[in-house]
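A further point concerns the way the authors explain their paired sequence and structure data. Each protein is reduced to its one-letter sequence and a matching series of backbone shape codes. An entry of this sort, consisting of the sequence and the corresponding backbone structure tokens, reads as follows:
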Amino acid sequence: MAEEAVLGFLEKNEEITDSGQFAAERGIDHQDIANIIKSLHGFKLVDAQDIKRERWVLTEEGKTYAAAGSPEVQVFLAVPPEGISLDELQRKMDPTVFKIGRSQAIKNQWVEMGKQLTRKVQDVDDKVKDLLIRIQDGEVVEPKEIDALKRRKLISPQPWKGYSVRKGPKYAPRRKKFATDLTRENILRGDWKDLEFKEYNFSAKGQPVGGGSLHPLLKVRQQIKMIFLQMGFEEMPTNNFVESSFWNFDALFQPQQHPARDSHDTFFLQVPSTTKMLPEDYVERVKHVHEFGGYGSRGYGYEWKREEANKNLLRTHTTAVSSRMLYSLAQKNFVPKKYFSIDRVFRNEAVDRTHLAEFHQIEGLVCDRNLSLGHLIGVLNDFFSRLGMSKLKFKPAYNPYTEPSMEIFSYHEGLEKWVEIGNSGMFRPEMLRPMGLPADVRVIAWGLSLERPTMILYGVDNIRDLFGPKVRTWILVSSRKTLSVASEYKRLVSHFL
């Protein structure tokens, strides 16, 4: 309707001098007329020139007075012919109207002050209300009257933009529809010869190119890594996915007949099937403690076999890296250390919605003299409080290479119960002393997974969706507000533990 009005008018007239007046005469919203003029100008159907002017509109206070009358008139009308005391008048009126109206009425000499407030004239005209109504109706008002209303903050300026419009170089009474694509149908029909195509805008920006994005596991891993670094931990090198059974099991005082060393629990390599690089003196000490014990232990009392220790496998835990780091530390003058690692491990498990054959393990350990179970509990409270879990409990447990061992529980507010969140313990002397660490050195350690907090953070209920072709695009480019691991990790166990 607006486009037909503009093009139809220009067909018989030279110019639309004022788009605002043009819209008002035809009963069309000026914003619709302005939008059509800008569109027609872009296609060169019309030439448009800006018209800018300022108009006055009523403030909220001004609208009130335009409806109820100015404060001075309200005060005048509230004063009876016999007069009224100020206190009584003030009780009858709105405090703001009374304060403004009294001073204006006295200034206009409509009332006078004595023992009472009395009228000096019989009738008054509400010029302020009349002016406000005229401005509201769009009428022209004298500049001095505008200034008076502006000083009283009853009106405010409002910029207005319109257009004057003439025919453009491509003017037509009706806009043509330009083709944007040459289709197969156009060619088959032969009408491509008569098509007029829309001009190509070489300055227009194309669709944003989708860039790369960090995998959700890498994002959460970085957040947990920062917690370790803030606590003064060093990251261990974890680039060895292939380990020997010696570093993965034997060095951790895990017996060779343990079920975890069976092929249905561990991935063993066929090529190369064995390792040829082990520290022989350390191997002999590990063999002796397995067979005969030592350092207060009786050992396991079986014949330890070197061929079992030589078998290569995909590491089942990052504690294999910890055993290497502690052995390396023992070969020098002892210095206390705090280590952590976050990397991939492999288990020969059936894959389901909460288990994978490969996942990530988070591990932290502290190596120092005379550490105790109290130190372990203190470090755990510090670490997990940074993850948002301050209510912790510990339950005795069994691990082959830690004694004492503790399962870690946190109180889940949503479930209203205690739930397991990790495992911990102190490395056994049978593991540490053969390495060559001093007798008073202790190691405290704990571990948990990376996938489960990530699943909670991104609302994933199937662990398989985090890997390979099952990674969903919405996970990688999620616009969901980033939440801290501390706030989200509290919900971890309600789904996956």
Summary: The CA atoms of residues 465 and 471 lie 5 Å apart. The radius of gyration is 42 Å. The first strand starts at residue 15 and ends at 16. The chain is about 35% helix and 20% strand.
